[in-house]
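Narrative progress, year one. The postdoctoral researcher (J.K.) led the effort to move from monomer predictions toward full complexes, under supervision of the PI. The following entry was the first complex the group processed end to end, covering 858 residues in total.
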Amino acid sequence: MKILTGSFEALTNQVTKREQQAASRPEVEAAVQDIIKNVREKGDVALKEYSAKFDKTQVDEFRVSDATIEAGYNACSEELLTALRLAKKNITSYHEQEVSRGFIDAKQPGVIRGQKLTPLAAAGLYVPGGTAAYPSTIMMAAIPAKIAGVKNIVMVTPPQPEGINPAVLAAAKLAGVDAVYQIGGAQAIAALAFGTESIPRVDKIMGPGNIFVATAKKQVFGQVAIDMIAGPSEIGVIADEKANARQLAADLLSQAEHDKFARPMLVTPSLDVAKAVSAEIERQLKTLPREEIARASVNNEGFIAITKDLDQAFDLMNLIAPEHLEVQVDEPITYLNRIQNAGSVFLGRTASEPLGDYVAGPNHILPTAGTARFFSPLGVEDFVKRIQFVQYTQPALEKVASAITTLARTEGLEAHARAIESRFEADAK
Amino acid sequence: MKILTGSFEALTNQVTKREQQAASRPEVEAAVQDIIKNVREKGDVALKEYSAKFDKTQVDEFRVSDATIEAGYNACSEELLTALRLAKKNITSYHEQEVSRGFIDAKQPGVIRGQKLTPLAAAGLYVPGGTAAYPSTIMMAAIPAKIAGVKNIVMVTPPQPEGINPAVLAAAKLAGVDAVYQIGGAQAIAALAFGTESIPRVDKIMGPGNIFVATAKKQVFGQVAIDMIAGPSEIGVIADEKANARQLAADLLSQAEHDKFARPMLVTPSLDVAKAVSAEIERQLKTLPREEIARASVNNEGFIAITKDLDQAFDLMNLIAPEHLEVQVDEPITYLNRIQNAGSVFLGRTASEPLGDYVAGPNHILPTAGTARFFSPLGVEDFVKRIQFVQYTQPALEKVASAITTLARTEGLEAHARAIESRFEADAK
């Protein structure tokens, strides 16, 4: 992996220029617009046509039966089910701690103010077909929705001649998904956004997908809420001179294997560690099943930056704002206050990133491409909306009435002022 | 205002067909793309060119000096400043109750899990020029950002030959805005998203604007966070048979005067109330300074729906999901549990909607066009991001290692499994 040296400014310029990749292309935009329009107008009929055309599958019934889900679950090994159950337990106990409760405030005489939290009524989860169907991601999306109190969690996934992956069905069952529909692509997003005869309209759509799915999500945004549009995976590692090169290399490769555009990054003050990790990466790459993908990621996207000291390593990492951040130093928790921008942080030499992908409990649906500057991991709050409320007695309103009418008239909004004054006029119907 | 009657289904079909208006047009998209590209490449030079071209103003210095802000503040009447101070006090005390604190969880042996909340580093607030420059909106946007701990709150507003509205400068000073820049339009959004020599890059851009501003916000989304793209104002009123027609009409008109496309809505089981309110609206319209705007809103967008009973009125309103909701009944707080979708709720006969626009404290930047189904009022959480963290001892990792490797290999991610296994191999550099 290439080793970068130089001043902090030079390093910064080299590593922070990457941006969120464009999520779409004009011809895709137009095709997706067309699909959405057709699904809105023709409902299930359009969905069947698109399934035949894009997925080469004739679908008679979109809803996957309980019996099929049960059969998928039973087809999984006990070893896999045990792992999924452990994941569920820890994801649940982590995310339960995110629950907020709203408030009610009666501190001013005659005034009640408050905020109530209400779960979204329905959430939709897109699960890609084939090898990109990750059971772990179903758990990560559905469990926080369940904890938030979402009553209707629906999953859509492309129809497949050989049937849906049993691990996916098992994860859906365990995570508490309420209904699974076999429909994919932009047409699935349109169905979730607007509803059809078979598929219910939802309030929020989550989950990864190809360029058609991502473009459709962008197009329906506003009509429905969406989760972030995630880019290729990233791992940033901050390591001191004692770091274990073999383990660091293995962690960097765990993200490199996801995608040719994944970004493995090591920042360390130790040139020795840098060289050792670089050599280890070459050694370990050779035996990886996904060597080609990982090698492209390492060669084109990855880097090792040498900083003056550990402190500067944190400064650089905060500018990068990585999706995953490993802190491979002694007493790692003492550095927590140095971390300003990152999605999910792994503290200490034992906390290898894949721990967080599966069973630790924190979410693995995370902001990428520097967006951890302002976006957060998926969590319970993504499935809750806040409703404000206020109640005033007549004497309480009287105390603030002149402030309201002054501000309203300053802004040229006379009817606003008169609405308040109507409360103090002789009563009339 | 038109009175709708009929079955619940008939009413639903008539009142829920409205959708978020398209935020843009192709020729605007292209023009805005061009502006953003130029600002990224040429920075301040481009900003000056656009200010000359669009705002007919030659700007030498974008930053508005402290002396100018102070002079604006001093130009305001004591009455206005007192009203702004009251607004600040109540907005602050309301939003302080929204602060969340993250958590740390050490319940499993050898495992630390947690979440830390970090404020965004910088937030940008767009304030339109002319009559649409609302000092109240500056308070509503900047105060929650301040409470969240945002260190750099910057405001941009179009340069104006006669100088910036003193009430706007006073609100900026009182709300804790850190810097004001005179720059407007899509070029201001581009400057906030990417930074120029004079104007700092921010992490989130808020605030209303014309179609160029809204389009620019959509185009830079992802590069930076944005608040919602708000549509025309809405007020929904649920009223029983005892409601005061004069007051209801005044409240409905307070939102109608905002915009020809604003939507005043009354839902009541009482035909008598409906008729009385309709007559009152006609009477009050005649003396409103903004009569033309309010009349267009009332005639084209407004309605009164007659429901079977109060319960059905709540059902209908939940389907509409109005930005503002008044509950004009006895014991209004007992109906709080019936409200599923609304931005800000005003309970009882005294709680006239403009109370919430200015001094009650809840935010007035709210979801419109039915998006209260899934979006929330602006609040402290909009200026905070969550960072997850996890730490495991070696024995704690050992307990979950086989679950991780099982799941990783099920998903075809061998390097993920090997990263975990590297923690249990003979140590090697």
